[in-house]
Amino acid sequence: MTRSSKSIGELPINLNSDSTSFTDDSSDNFFMDNSFDEDEIDDNDGSKRRSVIVDSKVSNFPSDCLSSPSSSLDNEKNVASQANILPDRSSTENVNAEHTTKPKLDLPSGRTRGRSTMKESVVEINPRESKSIDDEKLHRSRSRSRSSIRSLSPTGKYKRQKSSLLYAYDENDDFFKELAKEAKKTTSVSKESTPDQRKRVYNIKFLSKLEGTINKAVQVKVLGKYEFSRILPAALDGLTKSYKIPKVMKDIYKVENVTLYWKNAKLLDFMTCNSLHIPQDFENEVSDIDVTIVSKEYEKNFEASLESKLKEEEAALLVKEHEEIERKLERKRNEQEESEYREFEFELRNVKEKQERTENETVINIKNLQEDDNLLENNSDSEKVMKIALRGQDNKKIYVNVRRSTPFSKVAEYYRIQKQLPQKARIKLLFDHDKLDMHECIADQDMEDEDMIDVIIN
């Protein structure tokens, strides 16, 4: 038997476009999302077979595609016994279109694959065509068994996995599309923040070291996207025309005989001005570049001179750095010496001020004592001089000559001067563990010669 997607003598069939699919045996998408039944019509004379896949709602259905449920179940049990009979049966016994069945169909409850879950009921058959209907029942059973076998085949499992994989891929594809959109947004933002390098303009000054134009120069204004291999011919042509180079020397000015150098570095043919990464001070600035043209015959000598020049520059830079470090160290030493000298001057000034203050206090105290001595001498005739001991907190004694009229404030001042105590020092005098009033005098305490007074410093 042969198969074809076309059908011969098709009956009118109304299908629901939302839930119905058509396919043939060669289709890759064999398993559909909805359930289906497969009906086949075979002819002995090589007629074409029609395969219709129907999901649910059917308004008119061909009579050769229906059979009663009870007959179908019986025939399914006898498929194996009648497998050899079916190939010999003639397919010319077609079902008369006038004798039709009226099925009552129910929609499938869930998603199924392979075999339909369609229910059939209330079947009316013309008795005159019972034989044809029985043959068709066998044919129907065969198609059902084929459908069930095909649904359980390894090919079906593989196609089912393929369908699920494609569905997962669609979800991932959406995810990656979103990532691509975000990446495009980021790229657009970065492009807006950077200048357009392809439109950047450079003013190149070609300095010649070729014979006939040594230290001569030509200028070329170009876009930064062009390679030096495309710019060099114009520069060499400008040199030959501007300085009238004779034909004998024009071989020296060929592109293959010269080399370009920029800032002590060799430029290759594929390089561009943009690849030099020259910083731009402001937008749309025309950057200046100095390029040296050297003959390949003297290329090694030129590179050797460049190398020696670089070494000299590095040595000079090292010397300069060393001198800078020495200056910093010298400056630091000078600052440290000045700081130490200032500290010494400050300490010396404090010592001098302290000495001057002490001398002034001593002079004042001496004057006071002289006055007291004069007072004591004046009263020497009437008052007797006594010797009193002043004992400090260190248990050392200082003796002083007093009279009965000498106030204790004078005695305390004498002790302060002898001990070189500051003016702010508070002095207390105790006699027999009693505090003495500075306004009182020796006679008020009835002191006698060689009595001792305790001195306390706060």
UniProtKB/TrEMBL annotation:
<feature type="region of interest" description="Disordered">
    <location>
        <begin position="1"/>
        <end position="156"/>
    </location>
</feature>
<dbReference type="Pfam" id="PF11976">
    <property type="entry name" value="Rad60-SLD"/>
</dbReference>
<feature type="coiled-coil region">
    <location>
        <begin position="308"/>
        <end position="372"/>
    </location>
</feature>
<feature type="compositionally biased region" description="Basic and acidic residues">
    <location>
        <begin position="117"/>
        <end position="138"/>
    </location>
</feature>
<dbReference type="InterPro" id="IPR000626">
    <property type="entry name" value="Ubiquitin-like_dom"/>
</dbReference>
<dbReference type="InterPro" id="IPR029071">
    <property type="entry name" value="Ubiquitin-like_domsf"/>
</dbReference>
<feature type="compositionally biased region" description="Low complexity">
    <location>
        <begin position="16"/>
        <end position="34"/>
    </location>
</feature>
<feature type="compositionally biased region" description="Low complexity">
    <location>
        <begin position="59"/>
        <end position="73"/>
    </location>
</feature>
<keyword id="KW-0175">Coiled coil</keyword>
<dbReference type="InterPro" id="IPR022617">
    <property type="entry name" value="Rad60/SUMO-like_dom"/>
</dbReference>
<feature type="compositionally biased region" description="Acidic residues">
    <location>
        <begin position="35"/>
        <end position="44"/>
    </location>
</feature>
<protein>
    <recommendedName>
        <fullName>Ubiquitin-like domain-containing protein</fullName>
    </recommendedName>
</protein>
<feature type="domain" description="Ubiquitin-like">
    <location>
        <begin position="386"/>
        <end position="458"/>
    </location>
</feature>
